[in-house]
What we know:
This protein is α+β, with helices and mostly antiparallel strands.
Amino acid sequence: MSYDIKVLSVGAVCKLNMSCGSIIAERAVIPGKEFSGSYPFVSKIGGEWFGLIKEGSPKNTGSFDVCDFDFGGGEHELSWRTGASAVGHYSLLFRSEELLSDFRLVMKQLRNMSPTKMLIFLPRLDGNEQNDICGVLTLDDFMALIPQKRIYSNICYIIQN
């Protein structure tokens, strides 16, 4: 199973990877095309995409060393979906408080790169991906939802402030 965190810094232009603590924001090569089927809205937004990985981790592990999903807490059902497409969403967990703290800092850096101070956050888990998007949250509100286990896999979150 693959875990992947992708972040789009909307409107940003950057040619370098970034890091904060033990998390590296690695520039992703043309992921907009990768998302055109499951996330057509997001694939049309310009900017720089980054994948979040842990420093020193093999590249083929994606974000596995940064985060996990709360499989023990069960699947969450999306109220706006029906049938099989409504289930299969799990809460995002970070592997340590240090990683969560580094995550907050790298998210602030990526947000500040954006001329509109906007990010698209996508925690991906292999499975049924559809064009599910959570409306606009501030970065502080978004970060407050993580310990509450209210950030779910395979949903895009729009973060702006």
